[in-house]
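S.,

As promised, the flavin-adenine dinucleotide run. Input:
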Amino acid sequence: MPDRSLPLLANDHPVTRDAALARLDEFVPRAGPAYAGGRNHDHGPGRHDAVSRLSAALARRTLTEAEVLSPVVALHASGADAFVREVFWRGYFRGWIEARPVIWQGWLGALDRIDARLAQDDALAARHLAAVRGATGIACFDHWMHELAQTGYLHNWARMQVASIWIFTLGLPWELGARHFLDHLVDADAASNTLSWRWVAGLHTPGKAYLADATRIARMTAGRFVPIGLAAHARIPDAPPHPPAAPPRQPTAIAEGVPTLLWITPADCSLEREPALAALLVRAVAIIDPDGAAAGHGAQADRIALDDALARAAARWRVPACRVAGIEALAALAEEIGARQVVTGRIGVGPGMGTLIAARGALRRAGIALAEHVRAWDRAVWPHATRGFFALRDHIPHVLAEMVG
Ligand SMILES: Cc1cc2nc3c(=O)[nH]c(=O)nc-3n(C[C@H](O)[C@H](O)[C@H](O)COP(=O)(O)OP(=O)(O)OC[C@H]3O[C@@H](n4cnc5c(N)ncnc54)[C@H](O)[C@@H]3O)c2cc1C
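Predicted complex:
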Protein backbone atom coordinates (compact mmCIF):
# COMPACT_ATOMS: atom_id res chain seq x y z
CA MET A 1 0.00 0.00 0.00
CA PRO A 2 1.54 3.39 -0.91
CA ASP A 3 2.43 5.66 1.97
CA ARG A 4 0.70 8.87 0.99
CA SER A 5 2.14 10.98 3.80
CA LEU A 6 5.69 9.75 3.19
CA PRO A 7 7.12 12.97 1.75
CA LEU A 8 5.77 14.95 4.68
CA LEU A 9 7.24 12.54 7.18
CA ALA A 10 10.60 12.27 5.47
CA ASN A 11 10.92 16.04 5.27
CA ASP A 12 9.59 17.03 8.64
CA HIS A 13 10.52 14.17 10.94
CA PRO A 14 13.46 12.28 9.45
CA VAL A 15 13.97 8.68 10.54
CA THR A 16 16.60 7.50 8.07
CA ARG A 17 20.11 8.13 9.27
CA ASP A 18 21.17 10.31 6.35
CA ALA A 19 18.09 12.49 6.59
CA ALA A 20 18.39 12.79 10.37
CA LEU A 21 22.07 13.78 10.09
CA ALA A 22 21.16 16.37 7.47
CA ARG A 23 18.51 17.80 9.82
CA LEU A 24 21.02 17.86 12.66
CA ASP A 25 23.57 19.75 10.52
CA GLU A 26 20.99 22.27 9.53
CA PHE A 27 19.66 22.70 13.10
CA VAL A 28 22.95 22.96 15.05
CA PRO A 29 23.44 26.73 14.43
CA ARG A 30 19.93 27.31 15.85
CA ALA A 31 20.38 25.09 18.95
CA GLY A 32 21.80 27.91 21.11
CA PRO A 33 20.15 31.21 22.06
CA ALA A 34 17.72 31.00 19.13
CA TYR A 35 16.33 27.73 20.54
CA ALA A 36 16.16 29.07 24.11
CA GLY A 37 14.20 32.13 22.97
CA GLY A 38 11.96 30.54 20.38
CA ARG A 39 11.25 27.01 21.46
CA ASN A 40 7.97 27.70 23.26
CA HIS A 41 6.31 29.66 20.47
CA ASP A 42 3.89 27.73 18.32
CA HIS A 43 3.71 29.19 14.82
CA GLY A 44 1.50 26.46 13.40
CA PRO A 45 1.94 23.38 11.21
CA GLY A 46 4.94 23.46 8.90
CA ARG A 47 6.46 26.34 10.90
CA HIS A 48 8.24 24.53 13.73
CA ASP A 49 11.73 25.69 12.75
CA ALA A 50 12.61 26.87 16.25
CA VAL A 51 12.83 23.24 17.40
CA SER A 52 14.86 20.36 15.99
CA ARG A 53 12.09 17.89 15.07
CA LEU A 54 14.62 15.15 15.74
CA SER A 55 12.39 13.33 18.22
CA ALA A 56 11.32 10.62 15.74
CA ALA A 57 15.00 9.82 15.11
CA LEU A 58 15.97 10.03 18.79
CA ALA A 59 13.04 7.85 19.89
CA ARG A 60 14.32 5.09 17.58
CA ARG A 61 17.96 5.83 18.20
CA THR A 62 18.52 6.40 14.52
CA LEU A 63 20.63 9.15 16.07
CA THR A 64 21.80 8.88 19.66
CA GLU A 65 21.66 11.59 22.29
CA ALA A 66 25.47 11.83 22.25
CA GLU A 67 25.53 12.28 18.47
CA VAL A 68 22.99 15.07 18.65
CA LEU A 69 24.59 16.89 21.57
CA SER A 70 28.19 16.60 20.43
CA PRO A 71 28.09 19.22 17.61
CA VAL A 72 25.64 21.38 19.57
CA VAL A 73 27.91 21.64 22.61
CA ALA A 74 30.99 22.05 20.40
CA LEU A 75 29.44 25.10 18.72
CA HIS A 76 27.50 26.75 21.53
CA ALA A 77 29.01 25.46 24.82
CA SER A 78 26.76 26.70 27.67
CA GLY A 79 24.75 28.77 25.14
CA ALA A 80 22.92 25.53 24.33
CA ASP A 81 21.96 24.72 27.93
CA ALA A 82 18.23 24.89 27.15
CA PHE A 83 18.50 22.42 24.28
CA VAL A 84 20.83 20.11 26.24
CA ARG A 85 18.35 20.06 29.13
CA GLU A 86 15.49 19.08 26.86
CA VAL A 87 17.44 16.15 25.45
CA PHE A 88 18.15 15.05 29.03
CA TRP A 89 14.42 15.15 29.81
CA ARG A 90 14.08 12.25 27.40
CA GLY A 91 16.64 10.17 29.32
CA TYR A 92 15.14 11.29 32.63
CA PHE A 93 11.67 9.99 31.75
CA ARG A 94 13.12 6.78 30.33
CA GLY A 95 15.22 6.14 33.44
CA TRP A 96 12.32 6.99 35.75
CA ILE A 97 9.93 4.53 34.13
CA GLU A 98 12.55 1.79 33.87
CA ALA A 99 12.82 2.07 37.66
CA ARG A 100 9.01 1.81 38.00
CA PRO A 101 7.60 -0.38 35.20
CA VAL A 102 4.45 -0.77 37.30
CA ILE A 103 3.44 2.73 36.17
CA TRP A 104 3.15 1.43 32.59
CA GLN A 105 1.32 -1.72 33.68
CA GLY A 106 -1.01 0.40 35.81
CA TRP A 107 -1.81 2.57 32.77
CA LEU A 108 -2.68 -0.51 30.70
CA GLY A 109 -4.94 -1.82 33.47
CA ALA A 110 -6.63 1.58 33.87
CA LEU A 111 -7.34 1.69 30.12
CA ASP A 112 -9.23 -1.60 30.34
CA ARG A 113 -11.41 -0.20 33.11
CA ILE A 114 -11.96 3.12 31.31
CA ASP A 115 -12.86 1.35 28.05
CA ALA A 116 -15.52 -0.57 29.96
CA ARG A 117 -16.84 2.73 31.34
CA LEU A 118 -16.84 4.27 27.86
CA ALA A 119 -19.08 1.46 26.66
CA GLN A 120 -21.65 2.34 29.33
CA ASP A 121 -21.36 6.07 29.88
CA ASP A 122 -22.77 7.85 26.79
CA ALA A 123 -21.87 11.34 28.00
CA LEU A 124 -18.24 10.35 28.61
CA ALA A 125 -18.10 8.55 25.25
CA ALA A 126 -19.48 11.63 23.45
CA ARG A 127 -16.94 13.96 25.12
CA HIS A 128 -14.16 11.55 24.23
CA LEU A 129 -15.28 11.28 20.62
CA ALA A 130 -15.50 15.05 20.25
CA ALA A 131 -11.98 15.39 21.66
CA VAL A 132 -10.32 12.81 19.40
CA ARG A 133 -12.13 14.22 16.36
CA GLY A 134 -11.11 17.76 17.25
CA ALA A 135 -14.73 18.83 17.45
CA THR A 136 -15.00 20.27 20.96
CA GLY A 137 -15.58 23.88 19.93
CA ILE A 138 -12.38 24.98 21.70
CA ALA A 139 -10.61 26.30 18.60
CA CYS A 140 -6.97 25.87 19.71
CA PHE A 141 -7.59 22.36 21.03
CA ASP A 142 -9.45 21.31 17.88
CA HIS A 143 -6.71 22.81 15.71
CA TRP A 144 -3.98 20.90 17.55
CA MET A 145 -5.92 17.64 17.41
CA HIS A 146 -6.22 18.03 13.63
CA GLU A 147 -2.53 18.87 13.35
CA LEU A 148 -1.66 15.75 15.33
CA ALA A 149 -3.86 13.55 13.15
CA GLN A 150 -2.49 15.01 9.92
CA THR A 151 1.21 15.31 10.73
CA GLY A 152 1.91 12.96 13.67
CA TYR A 153 3.55 15.85 15.48
CA LEU A 154 2.79 18.59 17.95
CA HIS A 155 5.19 21.13 19.33
CA ASN A 156 6.04 20.39 23.01
CA TRP A 157 4.24 23.44 24.28
CA ALA A 158 1.11 22.56 22.24
CA ARG A 159 1.23 19.03 23.71
CA MET A 160 1.11 20.58 27.18
CA GLN A 161 -1.93 22.73 26.31
CA VAL A 162 -3.76 19.80 24.69
CA ALA A 163 -3.11 17.50 27.65
CA SER A 164 -4.17 20.15 30.14
CA ILE A 165 -7.40 21.04 28.31
CA TRP A 166 -8.13 17.31 27.84
CA ILE A 167 -7.84 16.62 31.57
CA PHE A 168 -9.04 19.78 33.30
CA THR A 169 -11.44 21.49 30.87
CA LEU A 170 -12.95 18.48 29.11
CA GLY A 171 -12.78 16.31 32.24
CA LEU A 172 -11.45 13.29 30.35
CA PRO A 173 -9.18 10.63 31.90
CA TRP A 174 -5.50 11.37 31.21
CA GLU A 175 -5.03 7.69 30.34
CA LEU A 176 -7.20 8.05 27.21
CA GLY A 177 -5.29 11.13 26.09
CA ALA A 178 -1.97 9.32 26.55
CA ARG A 179 -3.25 6.47 24.38
CA HIS A 180 -4.43 8.84 21.68
CA PHE A 181 -1.00 10.50 21.58
CA LEU A 182 0.84 7.17 21.56
CA ASP A 183 -1.30 5.98 18.64
CA HIS A 184 -0.72 9.15 16.59
CA LEU A 185 2.70 10.60 17.39
CA VAL A 186 5.53 9.97 14.96
CA ASP A 187 7.90 10.08 17.97
CA ALA A 188 5.66 7.96 20.22
CA ASP A 189 7.68 6.96 23.27
CA ALA A 190 6.12 5.13 26.20
CA ALA A 191 8.27 6.87 28.82
CA SER A 192 8.12 10.49 27.61
CA ASN A 193 4.45 10.23 26.71
CA THR A 194 3.06 8.47 29.78
CA LEU A 195 5.10 10.53 32.22
CA SER A 196 4.42 13.84 30.45
CA TRP A 197 0.69 13.19 30.66
CA ARG A 198 1.11 12.33 34.34
CA TRP A 199 3.20 15.48 34.80
CA VAL A 200 0.45 17.68 33.30
CA ALA A 201 -2.18 15.88 35.40
CA GLY A 202 -0.25 16.63 38.61
CA LEU A 203 0.72 13.02 39.25
CA HIS A 204 4.43 13.07 38.41
CA THR A 205 5.36 15.93 40.71
CA PRO A 206 2.62 15.19 43.23
CA GLY A 207 0.21 18.08 43.68
CA LYS A 208 1.74 20.19 40.87
CA ALA A 209 -0.40 20.20 37.74
CA TYR A 210 -0.07 22.23 34.53
CA LEU A 211 -3.10 24.43 33.91
CA ALA A 212 -3.52 25.85 30.39
CA ASP A 213 -4.08 29.58 30.47
CA ALA A 214 -5.94 31.62 27.82
CA THR A 215 -3.67 34.69 28.04
CA ARG A 216 -0.53 32.59 27.66
CA ILE A 217 -2.05 30.68 24.73
CA ALA A 218 -2.88 33.98 23.00
CA ARG A 219 0.69 35.22 23.55
CA MET A 220 2.46 32.05 22.47
CA THR A 221 0.35 31.63 19.34
CA ALA A 222 0.77 35.30 18.37
CA GLY A 223 -2.95 35.86 18.87
CA ARG A 224 -4.07 33.04 16.59
CA PHE A 225 -6.10 31.62 19.48
CA VAL A 226 -7.79 33.33 22.40
CA PRO A 227 -9.72 30.53 24.09
CA ILE A 228 -12.58 31.17 26.47
CA GLY A 229 -14.00 28.86 29.10
CA LEU A 230 -10.82 26.99 30.01
CA ALA A 231 -10.78 25.37 33.44
CA ALA A 232 -9.71 27.82 36.14
CA HIS A 233 -8.65 25.08 38.57
CA ALA A 234 -6.75 21.85 38.15
CA ARG A 235 -8.63 18.98 39.75
CA ILE A 236 -5.84 16.48 40.17
CA PRO A 237 -7.01 12.89 39.58
CA ASP A 238 -6.76 10.39 42.42
CA ALA A 239 -3.79 8.07 42.16
CA PRO A 240 -1.71 5.97 44.52
CA PRO A 241 1.69 7.38 45.55
CA HIS A 242 4.71 6.56 43.35
CA PRO A 243 6.09 3.11 43.97
CA PRO A 244 9.71 3.19 45.16
CA ALA A 245 12.38 3.08 42.47
CA ALA A 246 13.91 -0.33 41.79
CA PRO A 247 17.01 -1.15 39.71
CA PRO A 248 16.13 -1.36 36.01
CA ARG A 249 15.65 -4.81 34.47
CA GLN A 250 19.05 -6.40 33.76
CA PRO A 251 18.91 -8.07 30.35
CA THR A 252 20.89 -11.17 29.40
CA ALA A 253 24.47 -10.18 28.68
CA ILE A 254 25.97 -10.60 25.21
CA ALA A 255 28.34 -13.55 24.76
CA GLU A 256 31.47 -12.96 22.72
CA GLY A 257 32.76 -15.23 19.98
CA VAL A 258 29.49 -17.10 19.31
CA PRO A 259 27.51 -17.09 16.06
CA THR A 260 24.93 -14.34 16.34
CA LEU A 261 21.75 -13.15 14.68
CA LEU A 262 21.42 -9.38 15.07
CA TRP A 263 17.77 -8.40 15.52
CA ILE A 264 16.90 -4.76 14.94
CA THR A 265 13.79 -3.28 16.54
CA PRO A 266 12.50 0.30 16.78
CA ALA A 267 14.15 0.46 20.23
CA ASP A 268 17.60 0.90 18.67
CA CYS A 269 18.17 1.56 14.99
CA SER A 270 21.92 2.25 14.90
CA LEU A 271 23.50 -0.82 16.49
CA GLU A 272 26.01 -1.07 13.65
CA ARG A 273 27.78 2.01 15.04
CA GLU A 274 28.29 0.66 18.54
CA PRO A 275 31.99 0.01 19.20
CA ALA A 276 30.98 -2.48 21.92
CA LEU A 277 29.35 -4.68 19.24
CA ALA A 278 32.16 -4.46 16.69
CA ALA A 279 33.58 -7.89 17.51
CA LEU A 280 30.26 -9.78 17.34
CA LEU A 281 30.21 -12.82 15.04
CA VAL A 282 27.14 -11.65 13.17
CA ARG A 283 25.88 -14.14 10.59
CA ALA A 284 22.74 -12.29 9.55
CA VAL A 285 20.74 -9.20 10.45
CA ALA A 286 16.96 -9.36 10.75
CA ILE A 287 13.91 -7.23 11.31
CA ILE A 288 10.43 -8.51 12.01
CA ASP A 289 8.38 -7.11 9.15
CA PRO A 290 6.18 -4.43 10.67
CA ASP A 291 2.50 -4.96 10.15
CA GLY A 292 2.04 -3.49 6.66
CA ALA A 293 -1.57 -2.68 7.45
CA ALA A 294 -0.77 -0.74 10.62
CA ALA A 295 -1.85 2.83 10.08
CA GLY A 296 -0.52 5.97 11.66
CA HIS A 297 2.58 8.09 11.49
CA GLY A 298 4.45 6.07 14.10
CA ALA A 299 3.93 2.79 12.23
CA GLN A 300 4.99 4.43 9.00
CA ALA A 301 8.11 5.85 10.63
CA ASP A 302 8.93 2.41 12.09
CA ARG A 303 8.81 0.86 8.63
CA ILE A 304 11.14 3.48 7.15
CA ALA A 305 13.55 3.45 10.10
CA LEU A 306 13.76 -0.36 10.22
CA ASP A 307 14.40 -0.70 6.48
CA ASP A 308 17.18 1.86 6.70
CA ALA A 309 18.73 0.30 9.82
CA LEU A 310 18.58 -3.19 8.32
CA ALA A 311 20.46 -2.10 5.21
CA ARG A 312 23.14 -0.28 7.21
CA ALA A 313 23.76 -3.15 9.63
CA ALA A 314 23.89 -5.78 6.87
CA ALA A 315 26.41 -3.63 4.97
CA ARG A 316 28.50 -3.11 8.12
CA TRP A 317 28.86 -6.86 8.85
CA ARG A 318 28.58 -7.93 5.19
CA VAL A 319 25.88 -10.47 5.96
CA PRO A 320 22.39 -11.14 4.60
CA ALA A 321 19.63 -8.68 5.47
CA CYS A 322 16.56 -10.72 6.40
CA ARG A 323 12.95 -9.72 6.89
CA VAL A 324 10.91 -12.23 8.84
CA ALA A 325 7.18 -12.45 9.33
CA GLY A 326 7.09 -12.84 13.11
CA ILE A 327 8.71 -14.19 16.23
CA GLU A 328 8.54 -17.86 15.29
CA ALA A 329 10.17 -17.00 11.94
CA LEU A 330 12.89 -15.07 13.78
CA ALA A 331 13.65 -18.14 15.91
CA ALA A 332 13.62 -20.36 12.80
CA LEU A 333 16.07 -18.03 11.05
CA ALA A 334 18.38 -18.05 14.08
CA GLU A 335 18.38 -21.87 14.03
CA GLU A 336 18.90 -22.01 10.27
CA ILE A 337 22.06 -19.85 10.38
CA GLY A 338 23.42 -21.74 13.40
CA ALA A 339 23.17 -18.76 15.76
CA ARG A 340 23.71 -19.45 19.45
CA GLN A 341 22.40 -16.05 20.44
CA VAL A 342 20.18 -13.30 19.13
CA VAL A 343 21.38 -9.82 20.02
CA THR A 344 19.18 -6.74 20.01
CA GLY A 345 19.17 -3.23 21.47
CA ARG A 346 17.69 -3.13 24.97
CA ILE A 347 13.91 -3.01 24.77
CA GLY A 348 12.42 -0.65 27.31
CA VAL A 349 9.19 -0.47 29.23
CA GLY A 350 6.43 0.02 26.67
CA PRO A 351 4.65 -1.75 23.84
CA GLY A 352 7.82 -3.63 22.78
CA MET A 353 7.88 -5.63 26.03
CA GLY A 354 5.26 -8.10 24.80
CA THR A 355 7.32 -8.87 21.70
CA LEU A 356 10.45 -9.24 23.80
CA ILE A 357 8.85 -11.75 26.15
CA ALA A 358 7.41 -13.77 23.27
CA ALA A 359 10.76 -13.73 21.43
CA ARG A 360 12.63 -14.86 24.53
CA GLY A 361 10.23 -17.80 24.89
CA ALA A 362 10.46 -18.87 21.23
CA LEU A 363 14.25 -18.65 21.24
CA ARG A 364 14.57 -20.49 24.55
CA ARG A 365 12.57 -23.37 23.07
CA ALA A 366 15.15 -23.47 20.26
CA GLY A 367 18.04 -23.39 22.77
CA ILE A 368 19.10 -19.89 21.72
CA ALA A 369 19.77 -16.98 24.09
CA LEU A 370 18.30 -13.52 23.62
CA ALA A 371 20.78 -10.85 24.73
CA GLU A 372 20.22 -7.08 24.77
CA HIS A 373 22.76 -4.32 24.35
CA VAL A 374 22.49 -1.53 26.94
CA ARG A 375 23.83 1.82 25.76
CA ALA A 376 26.51 3.54 27.85
CA TRP A 377 24.35 6.68 27.75
CA ASP A 378 21.52 4.90 29.56
CA ARG A 379 23.90 3.46 32.12
CA ALA A 380 25.22 6.99 32.78
CA VAL A 381 21.83 8.74 32.95
CA TRP A 382 19.38 6.31 34.54
CA PRO A 383 20.91 6.10 38.03
CA HIS A 384 20.24 9.86 38.39
CA ALA A 385 16.70 9.67 37.03
CA THR A 386 14.90 8.02 39.90
CA ARG A 387 13.63 11.18 41.65
CA GLY A 388 12.92 14.67 40.29
CA PHE A 389 14.57 16.08 37.15
CA PHE A 390 16.76 18.42 39.20
CA ALA A 391 18.72 15.50 40.61
CA LEU A 392 19.69 14.57 37.05
CA ARG A 393 20.24 18.19 36.00
CA ASP A 394 23.08 18.49 38.50
CA HIS A 395 24.80 15.55 36.79
CA ILE A 396 24.47 16.83 33.23
CA PRO A 397 28.01 18.31 33.13
CA HIS A 398 29.52 14.98 34.26
CA VAL A 399 27.50 12.96 31.75
CA LEU A 400 28.42 15.37 28.96
CA ALA A 401 32.11 15.27 29.88
CA GLU A 402 32.06 11.48 29.90
CA MET A 403 29.86 10.82 26.87
CA VAL A 404 30.19 13.83 24.57
CA GLY A 405 33.71 15.04 25.31
C1 LIG B 1 1.76 15.37 26.79
C2 LIG B 1 3.13 15.17 26.18
C3 LIG B 1 3.42 14.00 25.49
C4 LIG B 1 4.68 13.79 24.94
N1 LIG B 1 4.94 12.62 24.27
C5 LIG B 1 6.18 12.40 23.75
C6 LIG B 1 6.48 11.20 23.06
O1 LIG B 1 5.65 10.29 22.93
N2 LIG B 1 7.72 11.06 22.53
C7 LIG B 1 8.68 12.03 22.66
O2 LIG B 1 9.81 11.86 22.16
N3 LIG B 1 8.43 13.16 23.34
C8 LIG B 1 7.21 13.39 23.88
N4 LIG B 1 6.96 14.56 24.55
C9 LIG B 1 8.07 15.50 24.77
C10 LIG B 1 8.23 16.60 23.70
O3 LIG B 1 7.01 17.20 23.43
C11 LIG B 1 8.84 16.08 22.38
O4 LIG B 1 9.99 15.31 22.64
C12 LIG B 1 9.25 17.26 21.49
O5 LIG B 1 8.16 18.10 21.25
C13 LIG B 1 9.79 16.73 20.18
O6 LIG B 1 10.04 17.76 19.27
P1 LIG B 1 11.51 18.17 18.85
O7 LIG B 1 12.30 16.97 18.46
O8 LIG B 1 11.40 19.26 17.87
O9 LIG B 1 12.08 18.72 20.23
P2 LIG B 1 13.27 19.71 20.57
O10 LIG B 1 12.71 20.86 21.31
O11 LIG B 1 14.10 20.00 19.40
O12 LIG B 1 14.10 18.87 21.64
C14 LIG B 1 15.17 17.98 21.27
C15 LIG B 1 14.91 16.60 21.82
O13 LIG B 1 14.84 16.61 23.24
C16 LIG B 1 13.85 15.68 23.68
N5 LIG B 1 12.79 16.44 24.38
C17 LIG B 1 12.45 17.72 24.16
N6 LIG B 1 11.49 18.10 25.03
C18 LIG B 1 11.21 17.02 25.79
C19 LIG B 1 10.31 16.77 26.86
N7 LIG B 1 9.49 17.73 27.33
N8 LIG B 1 10.27 15.53 27.40
C20 LIG B 1 11.09 14.55 26.95
N9 LIG B 1 11.98 14.73 25.94
C21 LIG B 1 12.04 15.95 25.37
C22 LIG B 1 13.29 14.99 22.45
O14 LIG B 1 13.98 13.78 22.24
C23 LIG B 1 13.59 16.00 21.36
O15 LIG B 1 13.72 15.44 20.08
C24 LIG B 1 5.69 14.79 25.10
C25 LIG B 1 5.38 15.97 25.79
C26 LIG B 1 4.11 16.17 26.31
C27 LIG B 1 3.82 17.46 27.05
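Residues 39, 51-55, 58-59, 86-87, 89-90, 93, 155-156, 159-160, 163, 181, 185, 187-189, 192-193, 196-197, 200 surround flavin-adenine dinucleotide (CB under 6 Å). The chain has three domains: 6-98+381-403, 102-220, 259-374.

- D.
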